[in-house]
Amino acid sequence: MLSDSRFIRACRREPTDATPVWFMRQAGRYMPEYRAVREKYSMLDALRTPEIAHQITMQPINAFHLDAAIIFADILTPLIGMGIRLDFVKGEGPQIENPLRTTRDIDLLGTPPADETMPYTMDAIRLAVAELTPRNIPLIGFAGAPFTLASYAVEGGGSKNYEATKALMYTEPAAWRRLMEKLATVVGDYLVKQAEAGAAALQVFDSWVGALSPRDYAKFVAPYTKTVIEAAQKTGVPVIYFSTGTAGLLDQIAALGSDVVGIDWRVALNKAWAQIGDNRAIQGNLDPVLLLGSWREVRQQADQIIAQAAGRPGHIFNLGHGILPGTPVEMVQRLADYVHEKTARTETVSA
Ligand code: CP3
Known about the structure:
By secondary structure, this protein is α/β, with parallel strands linked by helices. The protein has 16 helices and 9 strands.
C-alpha cells in the first residue's frame, strides 16, 4: 500500500519508522549508469522514449535505499507543445531557439493537453509505477511552476538577473498575465495527467522564483502558482512546492497551500518550519555542494537538520537543490543510509 509508505506518510504528517529520504536530481550525470545511457541517447530522445525514461528513473532506486522515485523528465518539455523550440546543448544546458520577445509571441502560444504533447512521460510513469508499486516505492511526478518556466521561455535559457522576464512583467503586465495563465493551464493539466498515470505525489519546481521581491511575487506570480497547486491537489495526491532563495517569501509560500514545502539550505529548517506552520510537511535541506566535500561535514550538517526536525512527523530529508554532476556515488549512498539509521524509531507505527 503506497499510502502506507514512509514518503507518503510523511507528506501527510503521519508518523514513520524513520525519516524518508530522496534526492532531487537523483537520476543524473553523477551516476555511471546514467552516463552510459546518455552516450547512446540525446537528452530529448531519452526524455521521449518511455522505456529509457523508465530505465533512468529506476537507476538510483536500484543503487541506493531511497524512499521515493522521481520520473525522468524535465520541467521544460511542456514548452515544446506550446510552440517553443527547445534543445539541450551538451555542457551548456537548455537553449531555446525562439524565445518570447513580443506580446504576439505570447498570443501565439498554444495550450494543448499534456496527453497529446507528452504521452511519452505518462507512458514512462505507467512503466515505472508497475515496477515500483510492488516494492511499495511511490513515484513523484513533477512540473515547473509558471514563473520558472516563463523565465526560460523569455530569456531563452538560464539567466542570472532575469532582465527580459522582469522587463516583460513590468512593461507589459497584461501580456505577462496571459503568459502566466497559459503556463498555469498547461502545467496544471500536465500534473493531473501524471497523477492519473500513477504518480503518487507531485512536485512543483519553482527553482528561480527567489529572484523576486515579496511584492512582485504577490502581484505577478503567486495567483498562478496557487492555481497550479490547487489543480494538482484535486487529484488527491500530496503536492510539494519547491523553490530556492525564498526565505523572505515563506509566509506567501505557506499561503499557497501545498501539502509539503521544499526549502533550500539558505534558511534553517526549524525556522522555516515555524514560519510555514506545523500543519505542513517540510522537505530539505542539505546544501548539495557538501556532498563534494568530506563525509564528516556532511554528517554534522545532516545531524543538525535532523535535530531541527526534532522527530516531528512530516520531515522528508532531501538536499536543498539537485545533486551536482561531480558528486561521488558513495556519498549519496552513505547519506541516505545514515539518515535512516539516525532517525530510526523503535515504536511500531500503525497504519
Ligand atoms: O530529479 C530527477 O532525477 C528527475 C529528473 C529531472 C531533470 N530535470 C532531468 C535533467 C528534474 C526533476 C529536472 C528539473 C529541472 N530541469 C529543473 C528544476 C530543478 C532544478 O534543478 O532547479 C530545471 C531548472 C530544469 C531545466 C534544466 N534541465 C537545466 C537548467 C538543465 C541543465 C543543467 C543541468 O543540470 O544539467 C537541464 C538538463 C537536465 N535535466 C539534466 C537532467 C538529468 C542533465 C542532462 C545531461 O546533461 O545529462
